[in-house]
Design brief:
Elements: E1 9-14, E2 17-26, E3 30-35, E4 38-43, E5 47-52, E6 59-63, E7 67-71, E8 77-81, H1 84-94
Antiparallel strand pairs: 1-2, 1-5, 2-3, 3-4, 6-7, 7-8
Amino acid sequence: MNLAYKGDEVFFHHKGKPKCGKVLSTGKHGCTVEHEGEKHNLKWAHIAGHASRAKQDYKVLKHGDDGMIVENQDGHQRFIAIPPEARDEQLKLSAAPKKKPT
């Protein structure tokens, strides 16, 4: 599972020092990040977190109770899970009482 996507800015460690860079590409075992003009091939375990996430435009292919399958502009598909706390919010919203006509 990818921890970052193309265009994201991530924090990582290189030679024992924390750095921040832009994700250029991703793969099964890690990603390529650019930092100050240098490219670093990182395993997913070396990603410390996100500085910012790239804007993603997705087309929803299938929506379910626990998440959805989406497709980006390049045709890549992925599953996006809906966390349990967000599911609770959906239930509360759809279970909200309707106003009685007066």
